[in-house]
Design brief:
Number of helices of chain B: 8
Number of helices of chain A: 6
Structural class of chain A: mainly alpha
Helix content of chain A: over 70%
Largest sheet of chain B: none
Number of domains of chain A: 1
Number of domains of chain B: 1
Shape of chain A: elongated
Distance between the termini of chain A: 25 Å
Strand content of chain B: under 5%
Order of helices and strands of chain B: HHHHHHHH
Helix content of chain B: over 70%
Radius of gyration of chain A: 14 Å
Structural class of chain B: mainly alpha
Shape of chain B: elongated
Radius of gyration of chain B: 24 Å
Largest sheet of chain A: none
Largest interface: A-B, 30 and 31 residues
Strand content of chain A: under 5%
Oligomer: heterodimer
Chain lengths: 114, 299
């Protein structure tokens, strides 16, 4: 996965998380789920900003090395966000991809995730 | 949890910030006029180019102001949207606000960089005008001093931009600079250009690279703002059981949002302006006409 592909993927996810469809869906749930949804989409925005500011040469090696894992995770997020079969599980999947990103890509989400 | 009033029932923020076309058009117009004259001005093409460089720096600042404002607005829309779903905490506010602060830092560096580049071109123009016999040695010394300072400042800020907030790899930027000093350039200028023209072309290429990333960021920021604003001002009133309270205002809001979306791609023109500046600089140092000039009048 290239730096540009990562940014495009995060932009697509960020936009989807602000779409009328997803907001209307999560608005129907209780405060805990809504709070988690809002928190995770803020992390997506931060991850996007971090990826844009990161040194490309630092990102490239990590992205190349973990290409398959990242692509699988991002595809999974796309599938769960599209289908919206399970509100909590969808948020888990989004959380998983952010955790993978913070672990694999230097500088991404360093400031907000433990 | 305290439920808030629906966002669409609050006073709407002005939408006039969304279109940003005028600044970009100004930038392109200034460059088209100024660069078009570079190689056609026999007297001092460097003076013309220096004026174009200064105008570029000034117009670029307008574009960067728009970029900064667009980013801040997108964060504001995110915060307002979040607030309709859950109460905002100081921590959650700080996380998103930090994105604005980081972006402002990069854009401020780019503004300073444009300033120092402009100073370099201005001093270069003065140097080009010193070929007449009788130029005082101390006058020449001052010009060389101004060139040295402007170049050092430009390089220092350029290194920061390329090293700390690298969008493309630095090598890719450096690979774009292939400057040849032409035979028609005077000896005074030749010495300066042989030493630094390629480095200056790298600095301009840095603008191209960063402006490409800025354009992409603006596109996304506007898409987020438009998505949230469309939901709040256009969709929510339609989905509500009551008819739209003020149809005229609703129609105007919807039009403003859709027009803003159409203009998203235009900021890419700023990158084209930086490319035009670099190509013109390279053509000028080679003593060749710029693309927009006629070959007959080349210096």
């Amino acid at each position: 996965m290239t730096h540009d592909e990562l940014i495009r993927s995060l932009e697509t996810l960020d936009l989807e998380l602000h779409s009328a469809r997803l907001v209307a869906y999560y608005r129907e749930f209780g405060p805990d789920v809504r709070e988690r949804f809002v928190g995770l989409r803020a992390y997506v925005a931060v991850a996007l900003a971090d990826a844009r500011r990161a040194r490309v040469e630092d990102l490239s090696a990590a992205l190349e090395e973990h290409d398959a894992e990242l692509r699988d995770r991002l595809d999974e997020v796309e599938r769960w966000v599209r289908d919206l079969d399970d509100a909590a599980r969808t948020l888990d999947i989004i959380g998983d991809v952010l955790t993978v990103l913070s672990r694999l890509v230097p500088g991404v989400l360093n400031g907000v995730l433990p | 949890m305290v439920r808030r009033a629906p966002l669409h029932s609050r006073a709407p923020p002005p939408l006039r910030h969304l279109p940003y076309t005028p600044a970009v058009r100004t930038l392109l117009l200034v460059l088209a006029v100024a660069l078009g004259g570079c190689a056609t001005t026999k007297a001092n093409p460097y003076a013309t180019f220096a004026a174009a460089g200064a105008s570029y720096a000034s117009s670029l600042k307008e574009v960067l102001d728009v970029a900064e404002r667009t980013g801040i607005d997108a964060t504001s829309w995110r915060l307002l949207d979040n607030d309709t779903l859950t109460n905002t905490t100081p921590e959650s506010y700080a996380e998103l606000a930090a994105i604005d602060a980081q972006r402002a830092e990069v854009l401020q560096l780019l503004r300073h960089h444009a300033d120092t580049l402009s100073r370099y071109f201005g001093a270069l123009s003065q140097l080009a005008g010193t070929t007449a016999p009788g130029t005082m040695a101390e006058g020449l010394g001052a010009i060389h001093g101004a060139i040295d300072t402007a170049f050092t400042d430009t390089k220092a800020i350029g290194d920061l931009l390329r090293g700390n907030v690298v969008f493309p790899p630095a090598e890719a930027v450096e690979g774009t600079a292939r400057v040849i000093i032409g035979k028609t350039v005077s000896q005074t200028l030749k010495k300066e250009l042989e030493a630094r023209a390629e480095a200056i072309a790298v600095e301009i290429a840095t603008h191209e690279a960063i402006l490409a990333a800025v354009a992409q960021t603006i596109d996304h920021d506007l898409a987020i703002s438009a998505s949230v604003a469309e939901r709040v001002f256009v969709l929510n009133p339609l989905l509500a059981e009551e008819p739209v309270a003020n149809p005229t205002e609703w129609v105007e809001q919807r039009r403003a949002l859709l027009e803003a979306e159409r203009s998203m791609g235009e900021v890419r023109a700023a990158r084209a302006a930086a490319r035009a500046l670099r190509e013109s600089f390279e053509a000028l140092t080679a003593g060749a006409p710029t693309k927009s000039a006629t070959s007959k009048d080349a210096p």
